[in-house]
Amino acid sequence: MTPPTHREITQPFEVRFTHRVIFTRHALSADNPVLAGVMPGDPPGKPTKVLAFIDSRLLEQSPGLLLQVDRYVQAHAGSLTLAGPTDTVEGGEASKNNPRLLEPVLRAIADAGLCRKSYVLVIGGGAVLDAVGLAAAIAHRGIRLIRLPSTTLAMADSGVGVKNGINAFGKKNYLGTFAPPWAVVNDFGLLDTLSDRDFRCGFVEAVKVALLKDPAFFEYLEAHAEALNKREPSATEHTLARSAELHLQHITTTGDPYEMTAARPLDFGHWAAHELETITNYDLRHGEAVAVGLAIDTLYAAQVGLLDVQTTHRIHRLLRTLGFTLTHPALKDTDRLLKGIESFREHLGGELTITMLQTIGRPVDVHAIDTAQMQIAIEKLRAGEPAA
Amino acid sequence: MTPPTHREITQPFEVRFTHRVIFTRHALSADNPVLAGVMPGDPPGKPTKVLAFIDSRLLEQSPGLLLQVDRYVQAHAGSLTLAGPTDTVEGGEASKNNPRLLEPVLRAIADAGLCRKSYVLVIGGGAVLDAVGLAAAIAHRGIRLIRLPSTTLAMADSGVGVKNGINAFGKKNYLGTFAPPWAVVNDFGLLDTLSDRDFRCGFVEAVKVALLKDPAFFEYLEAHAEALNKREPSATEHTLARSAELHLQHITTTGDPYEMTAARPLDFGHWAAHELETITNYDLRHGEAVAVGLAIDTLYAAQVGLLDVQTTHRIHRLLRTLGFTLTHPALKDTDRLLKGIESFREHLGGELTITMLQTIGRPVDVHAIDTAQMQIAIEKLRAGEPAA
User: Fold this and answer.
1) Considering chain A, what percentage of its residues have pLDDT values greater than 90?
2) Number of C-alpha atoms within 13 angstroms, CB side, residue A304?
3) Shortest CA distance from A113: residue in chain B
């Protein structure tokens, strides 16, 4: 037998997951079977440990949630057992900058003796879902995560994502993993305490994904924009559910759930949004920043002849009817804003790839941005001028 | 359209990876194309950033490695560029307990401006591969990781694994992820400075995987045990390569690369090994502890009538010929040792599952351990008595 001084093994393999999203109301009512249904014992019949984490901002509005979690688990004592007291986690996008955010969550999971068959239940907005999700993903190399998004934004978009993360060393989402949640339970009852400002934020991700993938849904949004602005339940619930579904379909069926190639069409409008959030120190909410980002990129697309002007107007009109303001003083600093393009490239790595729109339902990847035209687009938006 | 007050989406999906392992000699010689070959530019032709981390223990033995890395990258300036100075990372199993191990690696990756198309090159033993691997896995949600294992143990087993991790809150490998490396380059030239004690450690994982999967390989090991004990290159290289290959085949072809079910046959003999490492405060090397663990579990299997006594003797004889001592004073504390069974169950979660042997090449999962019989097996081993 000759020694293998130069031998190569190349072995493709795959990892299989199941993505599960359920829409309900009052998931924590003891008689609602949804949550218990997604947390079966393993092996079946054996009560399984669950540890809950709640967003501090949500808890301020709904302090009763702590007791509800206890009662829910008690009502399902045959299959669930609380592994420790429910913890509070600092909410809001700015909290993702706190380098001490993760440690207490990891410690609580360790103290509770959770294992990879246990459940971490997290109730909150996107930042808390992201931070607790990261902790659950790296504790014992992954504990089953049940997300209960409490904002329209998390229900419509990030809550069904397969990512988590916190900011570190001054970089947004620098630390994180790709890790599909065990299940996502979208409980529309959690939305009642949201301010109008936060409530509308989720709709922008619905507009974004409709523009990328579903012209009929875009028309639905146009037809129901007033109803959405008034928080009418039926329109709200359809909008959030359809948005979540389109996001989930994109992630699970387009062949690159872990974003190993450069293209990230779901980030449409997001390069400017990320930069605007940073410039305004998160004064501009993520949804508000994405609305401005979509306005900029559609104006630019019109400017360079990709997208027709009428469609650009339609999109801006929808965003305004939903209650978004498409100008912002921060647009004055175009140099700073344009740095967002380079940050975006660096985060993706390699070549710049930005999603633009050709028409509703037809995105296109571009690999270069005409900076002068982009500056004109930003300036027009700031001045409130319509697309030329 | 009725609002979806209770709607469910269940969507299976898969993530595809390629596992790549190359065996070579002197990978860091400027004229060896292997390393440059696994680090192509993305897009091709563009020099891609690489940042290297080296095990402090390895560097003590081979201080020239720092310069070799620089020269190798310079020699391949068309496709590679150094993103920062090569960092040293504390080596050895005990270092995985250092809660400050990860932070400087994460900071170096951030400072170097690596993105997801860049490469982290890590050269070292299992603990350093694990720690740097975790940092690379969570920075920007995963930077391409090139592993250069510097020990027989890492070449034969963990280096081809899809896991990483560090200890935290008193729990072994509490923090970690499943993350396939971009490539593993097994450079036999790195083994020359290993002590005999460290050198033999890798062989025990070869024995383990031969017992589980390949009777012909077990016979090869029996026939070459003396040669392996004398570090004869041809036998050593075949043994490490075949062991790596069998580990890789198991991970990539048995349908559960991320260990989502309970069974972990590659952990054969490891429940006792983990406990012995802790009891002896890592005085016993991992390979030495696994040798004792295999001896315990095969004696137990003989004791309860699973495995015939002759085969047990063959296995113990091979381990001894390879240079392992199968008794240890720590075996006296059987109560403490038996706690390893419960830790193992807790780490896996749910039901206890321990791999035992029926005959060479035929493992079986057992879900209960007869503690009295296990105590007898441990006591016999300690006293140096042969299996009855």
Assistant:
1) 80
2) 19
3) B346
Give me the phi and psi of A15, to 5 degrees please: -115, 130
When mean pLDDT is compared across A125-134, A247-256, A356-365, B50-59, the lowest value belongs to A247-256
Which residues, in sequence order, are CB contacts of B344 under 8 Å at separation 6+? B267, B270, B271, B274, B352, B354
Which residues, 6 or more positions from A29, have their beta carbon under 8 angstroms from its beta carbon? A68, A72
Query: What is the nearest CA distance from B138 to chain A, expressed in angstroms?
Result: 5
Task: Provide φ and ψ at B59, rounded to 5°.
Answer: -65, -35
Round to whole Å and give the CA distance between A121 and A128.
11
Residue A188 contacts B where some CB pair is shorter than 8 Å = yes
- DSSP category for residue B188: G
How far is it, in rounded angstroms, from Cα A188 to Cα B5?
Answer: 8
Helix, strand, coil share (%) of chain B residues, nearest 5: 50, 20, 30
- SS3 for A177? coil
Token pair of A234 as six digits = 């039926």
pLDDT at B34: 96
Say if A178 is an interface residue toward chain B (CB within 8 Å): yes
8-state DSSP, B85: P
Residue pLDDT, tens place only, A96-134 = 888 889 999 999 999 999 988 899 999 999 999 999 999
Is residue B108 very low, low, confident or very high in pLDDT (cuts 50, 70, 90)? very high
- For chain A, positions 54-113, list CB contacts with chain B under 8 A: 106-107, 110-111, 113
**Predicted ipTM?**
0.93
**Which residues of chain A does B241 touch, with a Cβ-Cβ cutoff of 8 Å?**
4, 7
Angle at B357 between CA A45 and CA B288, to 5 degrees: 105
Range from A20-29, A259-268, A337-346 that averages highest in pLDDT: A20-29
Distances (CA, A) of B98 to B59, B103, B279: 19, 10, 18
- Tell me the pLDDT tens digit for each residue of A317-366: 999 999 999 999 999 999 999 998 888 877 777 678 899 999 999 999 99
Query: Does the model's pTM come out above 0.90?
Result: yes
DSSP string, A56-109: HHHHHH-TTHHHHHHHHHHHTTTTEEE-SPPEEE--SGGGGG-TTSHHHHHHHH
Pick from B170, B97, B131: nearest CA to A107: B170
Cis, peptide link before residue A43, omega less than 30° from 0? yes
User: What pLDDT is stored for residue A129 in this prediction?
Assistant: 97
Q: What is the dihedral of CA A266, A268, A272, A274, to 10 degrees?
A: -10
Place of tokens 């201080």: B63
Which residues in chain B are closer than 8 Å to A346, comparing Cβ atoms?
113, 115
Inter-residue contact B221 to B318 (CB < 8 Å): yes
Gap between the Cα atoms of A239 and A276, Å rounded = 25
